[in-house]
Amino acid sequence: DEDSEDDDDTDDKDSEDDDDSEEEEHEEEEEDIETKRERLRRWGEFIAAILICYVQLRAYSSCHSILSSSHEFCTSCS
Question: If you average pLDDT over residues 18-35, what whole number do you get?
Fold first, then answer.
């Protein structure tokens, strides 16, 4: 009987360790998700900045093509 009680105690300890390791894994997964979200947010900002620069460059170049034919738009483009 005593041996069987000892076995039960060991099983309880093992199950507690399993619970702890599951919690640690869950926390690691949450950290990984947060890291990935942060990385995606930074990439999104980077791509948005490139698109804004591209649009501004297109507007600037089209404005200068207008300037070559007429000087009326000089103040609006500057």
Answer: 80
Looking at per-residue pLDDT, the higher value among 64 and 26 belongs to 26
Cβ-based neighbour number of residue 63 at 10 Å: 14
Element (H, E) at 1: none
Between CA 23 and CA 31 the distance in angstroms is 12
Q: How many residues does the chain have?
A: 78
Distance in angstroms (rounded) separating the CA atoms of residues 36 and 29: 10
Distance from C-alpha of 62 to C-alpha of 10, rounded to nearest angstrom: 77
Please state the domain extents for the chain.
Answer: 2-77
Confidence at residue 43, expressed as pLDDT on a 0 to 100 scale: 96
